[in-house]
Amino acid sequence: xxxxxxxxxxxxxxxxxxxxxxxxxxxxxxxxxxxxxxxxxxxxxxxxxxxxxxxxxxxxxxxxxxxxxxxxxxxxxxxxxxxxxxxxxxxxxxxxxxxxxxxxxxxxxxxxxxxxxxxxxxxxxxxxxxxxxxxxxxxxxxxxxxxxxxxxxxxxxxxxxxxxxxxxxxxxxxxxxxxxxxxxxxxxxxxxxxxxxxxxxxxxxxxxxxxxxxxxxxxxxxxxxxxxxxxxxxxxxxxxxxxxxxxxxxxxxxxxxxxxxxxxxxxxxxxxxxxxxxxxxxxxxxxxxxxxxxxxxxxxxxxxxxxxxxxxxxxxxxxxxxxxxxxxxxxxxxxxxxxxxxxxxxxxxxxxxxxxxxxxxxxxxxxxxxxxxxxxxxxxxxxxxxxxxxxxxxxxxxxxxxxxxxxxxxxxxxxxx
Length: 417
Ligand SMILES: C[S@@+](CC[C@H](N)C(=O)[O-])C[C@H]1O[C@@H](n2cnc3c(N)ncnc32)[C@H](O)[C@@H]1O
What we know:
Blueprint: E1 10-13, E2 16-19, E3 29-32, E4 36-39, H1 71-90, E5 132-135, H2 142-149, H3 151-160, H4 173-184, E6 190-196, H5 205-214, E7 216-228, E8 231-241, E9 248-250, E10 253-255, E11 292-293, H6 295-303, E12 317-320, H7 323-327, E13 333-336, H8 343-347, H9 350-359, H10 361-364, H11 370-374, H12 384-390, E14 396-398, E15 409-411
Bound molecules: S-adenosylmethionine.
């Protein structure tokens, strides 16, 4: 079991040091960042450099050499000590002028979410007991995860966490789940993690739903700008525990409760689908490939003739609108919709088919999904039920699912002529 009275914690949210006031005397530092790190109980002891010699560290001002094999260990140790000395400085303690940096032997270099030490039998890695877990886990959205980590790793990871973290969740959610489980098991008191702002919604929110089921969120920053490799991303910060913390802070304000979507008002995460909306609300279509054509290409195809069956290309052309078109200026986009046509039927629309063959086939042919591979000339989901529902209407209402704010616009069904 962990001690109930934490004496100090350093919370490292990336490049910004945030600190909580220490209670009691000595420090305990815990960091699960670039690699899981646990520091059970340490404070700098001037003059302790000699006993520390078995794991060589940089010990100013004497500067010992660093063994290449332990460079990573040294680097993390160094970072933790710097954080600790800064924490002393900014919290009214007197850091030693010539600190000796002791080795921290509990640092482990390992994959934090999937143990592949025996590649035949992947295991869920055990995290050590620690008073607090703090970290900035890697962000990798569902769509790019396979490219970044490889199909095999992603499959193994998803199988390992099946029923806990859904397939569409961001990579950082696995750290949230592991930290939640540590708190539930009594191996940790509280955790503070940074995530993409996606943790507030969609499949990723499952990680926060589970945190709210077995404990509670006591600290949240719902949406904060973060500059990463020169690009601006939006992140969320979440502090959670087993439910023992009564003071809750969301976006700098004291609140009574923090919902898993990082709001403090009505908990819409518990909203249910209304049966009455079943046939009037639809998810938009999903092409699953480059079926798009420009407006000038659409005009060229509409006016072209010469299909072997004599039918016009207009039968396959549809205007489409996506979130960007709704929120900005529409570019007048169209797609080639081969619907349920067989390959032979679609090929009779000579020019549109040639475009699909050139632009869609190369990526669809190597897709992991059998249906997408074998039906390379067909868009993935054109939602015929939605098309049927909006067909007779003068106008219908749309809202982007990916935008920050919930906005609604009216659109008119395309003129069939
Ligand atoms: C967003 S960075 C944060 C780095 C650092 N903690 C900070 O705040 O600047 C995420 C880190 O997680 C590491 N990482 C990625 N996958 C990991 C895994 N499976 N296990 C442990 N660490 C991992 C990356 O190498 C990267 O250093």
